[in-house]
Amino acid sequence: MPRFALPRRVHAIVGGTVVTAWALVLVDALHREDWEDVEPFRHFASAFFLLTAAGVLAGALLSGLAAAGEALRNVAVRQAPKLAGFVEPVLGASGEKVGAI
After folding, report:
1. CA separation for the pair 54, 49 (Å, rounded)
2. Which of 1, 51, 62, 101 qualifies as a FRET site for 33, CA 20 to 30 Å off?
């Protein structure tokens, strides 16, 4: 179990972005007039896969940034405990704590 946690809003942002992208694929399908060059099933499957993969990569990137922030905070607090009051607000600027000491 990782010691860091992403702010709850990050999950909503990544999930909302993927669902919005799926809606755009659906709108494209409903309003597309020329299907001659594109097979509809392959178009949908490819678009859903591509957009879902982009959402997963965004989640992984944000998780990595949270882990890096946690590591940076731990190093800064270990080196100079008086910095904790300055480092923690910067890393937890979303209003939620990134990790616990």
Report:
1. 9
2. 51
Q: Would you state the structure tokens that stand for residue 26, as one six-digit string?
A: 């659906």
Q: How far is residue 59's CA from residue 15's CA, in Å, rounded to a whole number?
A: 9
Q: How far apart are CA 74 and CA 45, in angstroms?
A: 43
CA distances from 53 to 20, 27, 64 (A): 14, 20, 16
Is the pLDDT score of 3 beyond 70? no
More confident residue, 88 or 71: 71
Exposed / middle / buried, residue 98 (Cβ in 10 Å: 0-12, 13-18, 19+):
buried
Q: What is the pLDDT of residues 68-86, one digit of tens each?
A: 877 887 888 888 888 777 7
Cβ partners under 8 Å of residue 6, min gap 6: 62, 63, 66
DSSP 83: G
